[in-house]
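Private note to self, pasted from the team thread so I don't lose it. Backbone tokens:
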């Protein structure tokens, strides 16, 4: 099916939908200049995200993990939302029942103005004390390494969900609720390999939803979705409006 026909079909389905859910990943921010995780530009000093975004890596070498986050914070601080982020703000405005679930920690959906938004892996501008568990915003670039809690002097960590850690219960419940009960699920710019987000396509399909994928490339989910649109998110997502 030609891309225009696919876009028209997604638009028609959206027009009929009562509840819409959207899942985004690093591909949405790629067009803002934020490197993806599994692309070649996602490597930092030859480490993969799976090597650094773990409680074990932080316990072993908190300075190294913080240096990686500082590199990312410096980069993200210079980036702005793109046309895909903005189109999703407009989509939210058009639907009474809507939830944007993002795996991105860069905060660009929030910067664009999305408000019915769940950042299921956390946010790079939030830190948490490993001792007293206090959570606070921190926009320092670069952050002093290693950063310490102002209240108890404990070591601070990024308030981000690492591999092997559970997602916050409320975030997981709300995203599962939206994915189970939506009429349409759009999956945009994610490789679909990190759970639990990777399971959302199957859950939505099992609930009878129409599932569309928008990605530059094929993913493990492409075969199961109703429609797969290939292209850059900043080009394709605005076409849905
Ligand atoms: C959990 C935070 C249970 C870091 C991230 C073995 C040991 C331990 C765990 C596991 C294990 N095996 C499996 C697991 C589970 C694990 C998992 O799924 N692992 C995978 C890798 C096998 N999951 C977890 O551990 C999760 N927790 O399961 O908890 C539990 C329960 C109770 C008690 C304890 C535990 C937690 C996962 C959280 C991981 N955190 N991030 C940080 O950001 O600092 S993951 C990391 O991957 C990123 O944050 C990102 O959010 C996520 C997904 O990546 P994508 O966004 O998809 O990015 P990617 O680069 O992969 O893909 C980009 C895509 O965009 C590509 O498809 C590309 O084609 C496309 N694209 C590129 N440009 C564009 C584009 N598309 C459109 N337009 C463009 N311009
Ligand atoms: Zn503290």
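Design output:
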């Amino acid at each position: 099916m030609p891309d225009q026909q696919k876009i028209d079909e997604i638009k028609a389905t959206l027009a009929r939908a009562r509840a819409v859910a959207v899942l985004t990943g690093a591909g949405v921010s790629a067009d803002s200049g934020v490197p993806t995780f599994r692309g070649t530009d996602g490597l930092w000093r030859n480490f993969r995200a799976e090597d650094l975004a773990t409680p074990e890596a932080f316990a072993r070498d908190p300075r190294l993990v913080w240096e990686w986050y500082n590199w990312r914070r410096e980069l993200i601080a210079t980036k702005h939302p793109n046309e895909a982020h903005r189109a999703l703000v407009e989509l939210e405005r058009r639907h009474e029942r809507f939830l944007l679930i993002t795996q991105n920690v860069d905060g660009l959906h929030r910067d664009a103005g999305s408000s019915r938004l769940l950042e299921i892996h956390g946010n790079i501008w939030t830190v948490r004390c490993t001792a007293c568990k206090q959570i606070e915003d921190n926009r320092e670039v670069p952050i002093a390494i290693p950063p310490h809690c102002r209240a108890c002097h404990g070591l601070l960590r990024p308030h981000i969900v690492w591999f092997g850690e559970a997602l916050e219960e409320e975030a997981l419940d709300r995203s599962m609720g939206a994915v189970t009960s939506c009429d349409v699920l759009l999956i945009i710019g994610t490789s679909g390999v990190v759970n639990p987000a990777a399971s959302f396509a199957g859950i939505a399909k099992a609930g009878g939803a129409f599932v569309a994928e928008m990605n530059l490339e094929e993913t493990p989910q492409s075969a199961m979705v109703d429609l797969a649109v290939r292209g850059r998110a900043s080009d394709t997502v605005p076409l849905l409006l």
